[in-house]
Amino acid sequence: QLKRKEKQQEKGNGFGFGMVGTESVYTRTLSARYNKDGSEIFINTLANPRRLTPRECARLQGFPDSFIIPVSDTQAYRQFGNSVAVPVIKSIGSSLQKHFEEL
To answer: What three-state secondary structure class fits 43?
Structure first.
């Protein structure tokens, strides 16, 4: 992974990767270019680090586990990277609704 990061930085693609622990509640921003330019988020396991699965990306964006991912992993990474966090949008919508009801 480090070699890939260096190679991408030499090309001027400076996304880099993020490494998080298995118990971490923090992560870097998902990118629609996940798996390109070395922009992956890796989970530091005891063996080799692994990248997030599409399901894990969906969870980070607030999608329920019941959400069906009907596309390829590549398309799923792109879609979740372009997505907004569902709980944030729900909260904004609720605030707007309350505001309009008061008018």
So the answer is: strand
